[in-house]
Amino acid sequence: MASAEVLDGLNAKQLEAATHVDGPLLITAGPGSGKTHTLVRRTLYLIEQNLAKPEEIVLCTFTEKAALELRDRVRNEAAKLGIYSDMSGLIVGTIHGIANDFLDKYRYKTPLGNNFTVLDDLTKSLFMNENFDALVEGFVSDSDDSGREKYFNEKWSTKWTAIKGLQDYFSRIAEEMLDVSKLKQSDKELVAQIAESYERYRALLLEQNTVDFEHLQVFFYQLLADTTEGQQVLNAVKYVMVDEYQDTNFVQEQLVLKLASASNNICVVGDEDQSLYRFRGATVRNILEFPGRVKGCHEVTLNVNYRSHQKIVKAYDDYMKSHTWIDANGRRFRFDKTIIADPDGVFPDYPAVVRISGTSKSDEAQRLADFVKHLLDHGIVKDASQVALLLRSVKIEHSLPYIEALRERGIKSFCPRARGFFQLDEIRLAVGVLSIILEYIGANRSPNPKGALLELDNYVDSCLLELDPIVEANPDLGRLIQKFNTEIADLKPGQTLDRRVADYIYEFLAVSPFREMIGDANQSRTLATFSQMLVTFQQFYGFTVITSKNLMGLRRSLFSSFLRLLYESGINEWEDPDQAFPKGHVPIMTIHQAKGLEFPVTVVGSLQVSSSSGKELDRNLGEFYNRPVFEPEAMITGFDRMRLHYVAYSRAEKILVLTADTSVGTPIQPWHKPIWDQAKDWGAEAERQVETQSWDARAKLPPKKPYSFTGDLKAYETCPRQYQLYRLFEFEPSRAVLITFGLLVHQTIEDIHRLTLEGRGAEVNAKYITDRFEFNYRHLMARATRKMAQEQKEAALQHVMRYWEQNQAEIARVQETEVDVSLEKDDYILHGAIDLVLGDAGTLEVLDFKAQTRPSDVDTEVIRTYYKQLCIYAHILEQRKGITPTKLHIYWTGETDKKRALMTFDYRREDVEEAARHFDDVVRDIRAEKFKVVKVPDQKVCNECDFKPYCESVGTIQPTRRKRRRF
Known about the structure:
By secondary structure, this protein is an alpha/beta fold. It folds into 6 domains: about 5-105 and about 215-300, P-loop containing nucleotide triphosphate hydrolases (Rossmann fold), CATH 3.40.50; about 115-210, no CATH class; about 340-420 and about 580-690, 3-Layer(aba) Sandwich (Rossmann fold); about 420-570, no CATH class; about 735-810, no CATH class; about 815-925, Lambda Exonuclease, Chain A (Alpha-Beta Complex), CATH 3.90.320. A 7-stranded parallel β-sheet has the order 15-18-14-19-20-13-21, sandwiched between helices. Strands 3-2-8-9-1-10 form a 6-stranded parallel β-sheet, with helices on both faces. It is globular, with a radius of gyration of 30 Å. The N and C termini lie far apart (about 75 Å). The model has no long low-confidence stretch (mean pLDDT about 90).
């Protein structure tokens, strides 16, 4: 295919960016300038010109959603243009995600062990709470008149504010890759104390085989910089492209520069005017200084906006130019550029920038709701989802007036990040039920609750008040509550109840009104989130089952600590990643949330609100940075305000609406005046002019989803309902058991293969195997729900030793181990993880390990299932590598005789093709949401399933008498 077709439709600057493929490149891309389209075509140009294979290209994005969109656009464009390279090898993701994948692959070369845990914001807070005493030891004072302890030079007065404050400092220390030994010698006592606490925190992370997002990046950088495997990664990467470069921090900059260091082919794309994430350590200097820091950098500016009406483009371009971007020393903090509208565009004459002001917050919301109704009533927009409301904060106190005003006019809204999770009916019901069962009442509460704890107690009381009429209307619910309350109350000293807190949620799903909630996808997903929260509580607070001894501590920990933290910080509602903004709803979101999106009608609300930027971390840590603090402190707040609203204003396609509450005395903050003055008042004249228009949103295809044999096909065929509830709705099993025996055998055998692949097979001996086995065992046991008996552990080691002793010649034939492979299908991605690929002289063989003995009967369902799995792997390899596997093997590590351990199948094309067709059929059923249980699963499957009570209540399976044991 001619390269002209790949580059067809690009403007002159986009073409220049797409075809500059030798050396560093900076693409400064204004809003709506087609940067993603340019990146897609640049990627395809590299492949079509044989400059790189897909697996030699790294594409870094800011969010997982953006990564999926970019991945799919590359694949879809490739198909349209007749480029038939397998795109599944393309390395696309966030910097965190890419770091995680490489660390997992090369974990034996990192400080981390197998099965390391990655902490998100919530679990990081819980991890610090769990280890709080160790973190603050020596940095606690009792200087409060009430006797309340203070932390770190009296900076924080409560435990949770200390945890939040330490999180910010720890993140910045890691992101800036600071020398902790120098921090500990700081003249500022607070900095020295925090440095020592950080050192303990990092040691605890490694001790518990855990990592946060910041250290994922640090460890990945160290892998690339300090190991042979890291150099192999660098040598394999030919091109690196980084989107949203203005929002990278120091360690991310170092990472991407290191990734591209072997080839020097790095392309960074971004817009300094859209830099929003200073509070996460991002610095606009990375993009502003890139041309000067990277030798031979070529620069291209994309300044033609294809998104917005020309009046909108002029308004926000004038807005940015109205600010001072040069400091007293003449340093510029913005590239000199002008954004222009599409020169070939046709722009009807109507007021594309309008303003709405109210005499109060409520009046502002009412007038905006009238505006939206007018657009819908006159067919100017086809659906409410085409109108987006952007606010600085969507917490309920800010978003509620708009939600209510729209509701009064029959218009739905969607504001999942209002942190209103705990106000949802199903959650209020669940919290009320748990508080009765666990008797979080009266003397079982803190006698003098204050602050966040008092708010939590008041919330629980409101849930209890609402529970009374619900119980009266649903007697089965009342009986179940009484049963479980009595069950706990009757616990005798020394007794243990074979239940966990999360078990109760699954029991209540069997009775109304919970039972009906399972039939509602949104409520089901909300309850699934609650199940995840309770399992997280069990893990981080160490409550495995309920006992007479731990009941009081469990009750206090669950409510006074865990739920208090969540209630105080707020939890977002569930969002569909494939359809972020449901039809028929006005999306209400933060400006940060709207970044990268576009809407026919964009409303930027509450322009009378002021804002400021946090500067404490730079003040206290800046002298230790690897480079001086960049922007003048006195200018930072002004810069951040302008950039934030520039992002908001540039989301609008057809009409930009500015709103403000004038009751505070001034309609807007002064920095908005340049754009506010260009806007026309919304009134009768503006209405008539806009009524001539009719707009629709651009259709977007949902991203292709990956499906695997074990996680999808096998799970779906085991039980469609289990698949729906666990896999799609993401209920968390209350008693998830890590299958340690098989993992331990697999991972130690993998270590043998990896060392062999490094050319160091001679170093594998009994001592090496024992050491790696113990290393893997230690890390697996840290996560296991049930510990392995000594005889099981010894048996697992024997599996590994026997395999190595009997197969040293075959191990030398290993080409790849633990191979993650994907195959592009028309409407999904077929994903697999192959234990072993063997080969000689251009041949391939597939081998999968099973840590068990071989079934005595060859014609069993177990072997048939495993054989289908091998056929799927063969199908993927054949399509990916263009080589037909000659043999398919199962190796049963539990067998003492090698001949019996190795089960071999000849490659049969008809079987492979049938397995692939069957996989397609199952995926089709999943996508069609065919989750009705037609055939009841094996009794063992049902007995181990949390949803057994629910299935009994709806008649899927026959009820069995269950008695909860006390012992």
